[in-house]
Amino acid sequence: MQSQQMIQALAQITSDFRRGDLDAAYQGYRDLFSSPAFNQGNADDRRHALRQLVYTQGAPTQFTRTMRVAHDAALGPIQALIAEQDDPADRELLRVCKTRLT
Asked: Per its UniProt entry, which superkingdom is the organism in (predicted)?
């Protein structure tokens, strides 16, 4: 995925959050992470998008179905980053994402 496409997707997700449309925001994450082109993007760009989801400020403490689906969609891309770069920060990102899903 070209970084411009990712920037646009993240801008829309941020706009959805600001409008209070959490379902649309989390569906945006799901769509982004499920895109076959996402894993072809720059590792730093992918990492940024994944961190933005996992460490969302102001997210509800009770997961909705849409939130759960977005986090589930993030697991594969996080694991792909770990396989590519074996960065300890990515392993921590995976741990936090899995913890939030339990």
From this structure: Bacteria
